[in-house]
From TrEMBL:
UniProt KW keywords: Cell cycle, Cell division, Cell shape, Cell wall biogenesis/degradation, Isomerase, Peptidoglycan synthesis
Protein name per the record: UDP-N-acetyl-alpha-D-muramoyl-L-alanyl-L-glutamate epimerase
Name of the coding gene: murL
Catalytic activity: UDP-N-acetyl-alpha-D-muramoyl-L-alanyl-L-glutamate + ATP + H2O = UDP-N-acetyl-alpha-D-muramoyl-L-alanyl-D-glutamate + AMP + diphosphate + H(+)
The protein's role, per its UniProt record: Cell wall formation. Catalyzes epimerization of the terminal L-glutamate in UDP-N-acetyl-alpha-D-muramoyl-L-alanyl-L-glutamate.
Pathway connected to this protein: Cell wall biogenesis; peptidoglycan biosynthesis
Enzyme class: isomerase
Residue ranges occupied by any MurL N-terminal domain in the UniProt entry: 15-289
Any single Pfam family the record assigns to this protein: MurL_N
Signal sequence region: none
Domain MurL C-terminal stretches: 311-426
């Protein structure tokens, strides 16, 4: 397709999921945008599993789940009122797709003022029986080594080290290649696998020409990719490191909870586990080890692993799709950088922390507005993977009493609002129960929360 001069989203009335297939270690998912007065635009997304070394045919149910999960990248470009699934699906799969669109595209819809994009009419050409017997899952053993998703940040590091301390030898997993992830894996000393994901290049062309753009539920897609990789490799549970604060919405809009971290939330985790059970698979194939912990507790555990201090990065600018736009280290000015810095500041000596970040974000007046948002003093929580207001407020109050930090410009400026920050900090969530953590990992979980 040649690049159009302009892309008119309103010209497309139907988004179609047209198929999926597996060839030579790759899974391809296929989609199309259609309209009565528009030339159809077809898309193909490619997931390459060859670097995992796994052989065999991917599980058809999980392939179908991947096609459903990954479609949001293409649906959102026009967000038409009708979604058609043109391959056989069960009703629970239709419900899964509706939930992923409604929850996973909330931020996208909010930013583009498209509330109807969250509730398209979904039409399934052919419904499968929920208990179709022609796709029996492979035998699965929870005692097999787990596959652990690595994002390059502190959370997955805490999970990796907790599993190692519990006697497990996790296989580490990532989608595409990023230096912070490679560096984290190298420090861990664990075996690893990588899956390559290639978006259809027409996305970039159409975004430049006027297609809608915005946040998608990447963790949902990566979760299903992980399930496919683990199944192909004969591994055990797929373990993510999604924490308690991912359950908190940024705001409510048109009656919808808008949560940047929806696909990291307990809502999505529960949805995916229920979908696995509907496929006849154990729901324990997927869970988060850190769900019980608020971000401050994860930071408390991360501080005990200084071997990772010079390699971990959570700044999203280090993970830009375009390699030429990636930063080597922390930018020190985005909401993610500001949050991670302030949550670690009471826990890591100041000279060491500023060395890690190569900047002190708390001593930059330009960061005051974002810190006010992060602490619940203005607007709403930024659309980033950050903790709740109480954790930031608690950290700031602690720093006001610390001679090393109290004169930093942001800390000093916010000292005038100490009573309000103290009130916000009082609402900090406690550590909660094990949730979906299987009994097989109970000792790891108990050691993690009781330290």
């Amino acid at each position: 397709m040649s690049s159009p001069r302009a892309f008119a989203p309103e010209a497309f009335t139907v988004f179609a999921l047209t198929g999926y297939d597996a060839v030579d270690g790759r899974i391809e998912t296929h989609y199309a945008l259609e309209g009565p007065d528009a030339e159809p635009i077809a898309f193909t997304e490619v997931f390459d599993f060859t670097e995992t070394g796994a052989a065999g045919v991917p599980n058809p149910s999980l392939m179908r789940l991947l096609a459903l999960s990954a479609c949001v990248s293409y649906y959102k470009m026009a967000a038409p009122s009708t979604v058609e699934i043109r391959f056989p699906v069960a009703q629970f799969e239709v419900d899964y797709l509706a939930a992923v669109i409604r929850g996973g595209l909330g931020e996208f819809a909010y930013e583009n003022d498209l509330p109807d994009a969250l509730v398209p009419t979904i039409v399934a050409d052919r419904l499968r029986a929920d208990d179709a017997a022609d796709e029996r899952p492979r035998d699965w053993d929870i005692a097999a080594p787990p596959l652990v998703a690595v994002g390059g940040g502190k959370d997955s590091i805490v999970t990796i080290e907790a599993l190692k301390a519990g006697g497990f030898a996790p296989v580490l997993f990532s989608v595409n290649q990023y230096q912070p992830i490679d560096d984290t894996i190298a420090v861990s000393g664990m075996a690893s696998v990588r899956v390559r994901r290639r978006l259809d290049p027409k996305i970039g062309e159409l975004n430049s020409a006027g297609a809608y753009n915005g946040h998608i539920p990447v963790t949902a897609i990566n979760s299903v990719v992980g399930l496919l990789a683990a199944d192909l490799m004969g591994l055990g549970s797929v373990i993510f490191s999604n924490e308690q604060s991912a359950d908190i919405e940024n705001l409510v809009w048109h009656g919808f909870d808008i949560n940047h971290q929806w696909s990291k939330s307990i809502v999505y985790e529960t949805l995916l586990r229920a979908t696995l059970a509907a496929y006849g698979m154990s729901s324990d194939r997927y869970f988060s080890l850190l769900r019980a912990l608020p971000e401050s507790e994860i930071a408390e555990r991360f501080k005990d692993h200084p071997e990772y201090f010079d390699v971990f990065i959570s700044c999203n600018r280090s993970f830009a799709l375009d390699p030429t736009r990636r930063r080597a280290r922390w930018c020190g000015e985005c909401a993610k950088c500001l949050f991670v810095f302030v949550i670690l500041a009471p826990r890591i000596e100041k000279a060491r922390l500023t060395e890690i970040f190569a900047v002190d974000p708390l001593d930059r007046p330009a960061n005051l507005a974002l810190y006010r948002e992060l602490a619940g003093l203005a607007k709403h929580k930024p659309f980033e993977c950050v903790g709740d207001y109480a954790e930031v407020a608690e950290a700031l109050v602690d720093l006001m009493d610390d001679d090393a930090w109290c004169d930093d410009e942001v800390v000093a400026e916010l000292a005038g609002q100490r009573p309000r920050l103290h009130e916000i900090a009082a609402d900090k969530a406690p550590i909660v129960g094990a949730g979906n953590v299987p009994a097989h990992y109970a000792k790891v979980f108990d050691a993690l929360v009781s330290r």
